[in-house]
Amino acid sequence: MARVELKQVRKSFGSAEVIKGIDLDIAHGEFCVFVGPSGCGKSTLLRMISGLEPISGGDIVIGDEVVNDIPAADRGLAMVFQSYALYPHMTVRQNLSFGLENINTPRAEIDAKVEEVAKMLQIDMLLARRPKDLSGGQRQRVAIGRAVVREPRVFLFDEPLSNLDAELRVDMRSEITALHRRLENTMIYVTHDQVEAMTMADKIAVLRLGALEQFGRPLDLYNRPRNLFVAGFIGSPKMNFLAGRVSTQDARLLELEGGETVPLPADGFAQRPGEAVTLGVRPNHMTMAEDGPAGMTVRSVEQLGGESYIYGTLANGTALTLHLPGQIGATIGETLRVAPKTEEVHLFDTDTGLSLRRD
Ligand code: ADP
Ligand code: MG
Predict the structure, then answer these.
(1) pTM value > 0.85
(2) Pocket of ligand 1, candidates 33, 44, 52, 194: which has the most ligand atoms within 8 Å of its Cβ, to mutate?
(3) Do 149 and 173 sit in the same domain of this protein?
(4) Number of domains composing the chain
(5) Where does a domain end: 226, 261, 288?
(6) In this structure, which ligand is nearest to the CA of 42?
(7) pLDDT digits (tens, 9 = 90+) for 150-180
(8) Domain extent for 40
């Protein structure tokens, strides 16, 4: 069983602390995605788990064992990188066999294993080729195959699809999740792409500036983001944010900067009169309504046939996006009355960024 547990894991490069005490518990067999903006520490954290990067503090537990001082080669992990890192002078078969030869696996066993994995990844007809004679997608399959033949306890992927074109990326996403269902190993997958995270993960760890912002199932993060950062990062197009102050007369009213007043949910959030709060509302939870509380000046319109996006600004300059089903037109420069669906909004403390949701 290969559960992966991080306990107050830290990393500094010189005086710069880039991983700031992360606690995380990844269950055996889970597909866990680390997601966050470029530079937030995803690769560093993955390399620390792999043993390629020494840790500066805390403990890393794999299975039941603290592995802090165990070399990378002895941790029972396999890593797949964005750059494939195949040996250019070797054939696909040799690239797949290499790791097993190194640990003196008998020839017949290597051949059987390589054939099986090549078939599983649909590269069995490419075994005699060299990497330069493969497409990007085929190379990435070989890189994955090389990890699979080693039968690791845990797979580590660092942005493995970033070099592929959009269509292939979508195909490979479902191939990797199918591989996970078949092998039932623990997998840790790094990406900066929240769509990849949402579609592939059992659990998502959202990282920012070396700290864990939230860890949970994709829809839990989408439905109940615990702070403004997660709310803005998960979901596309981005959640709209309207800053204002809870009315001192009535805690169910939000007075926006610039004077308009938007209703707040009657319960569910712990807002106090006079408090500076930020209302979050996803573009698909905005409606156009003649008596809508806010006036939005239209800046651009995208009609995709089945759905429409309307982009605009409120009188106070706040940007706003509406995502509406069907073919909805609007004229650039006109002012529409719009309303958030009150039962769908999120509410955050503007100063701390934390959600004001009660439970
Ligand atoms: P991500 O993979 O999320 O884009 P990284 O883990 O590569 O982020 O980097 C996190 C931070 O650590 C960045 O600020 C980066 O510049 C810094 N960093 C990474 N590796 C080194 C290193 N070897 N020496 C100094 N700083 C590093
Ligand atoms: Mg990286």
Answers:
(1) yes
(2) 44
(3) yes
(4) 2
(5) 226
(6) 1
(7) 889 999 999 998 888 888 889 889 989 999 9
(8) 4-226
Query: Residue 43 Cα, ligand 2 centroid: separation in angstroms?
Result: 4
The C-alpha angle with vertex 337 and arms to 332 and 342, in degrees rounded to 5, equals 130
Same domain, 260 and 141: no
CATH number for 84: 3.40.50.300
Our answer on whether the CB atom of 13 is closer than 6 Å to any ligand 1 atom is yes
The neighbour count for residue 230, using CB atoms within 10 Å, is 23
- Amino acid in position 17: E
CATH of residue 309: 2.40.50.140
Point out the domain boundary residue: 226, 247, 263.
Answer: 226
pLDDT tens track for 310-326: 999 999 999 999 999 99
Q: What's the gap in Å between 81 CA and the centre of ligand 2? A: 10
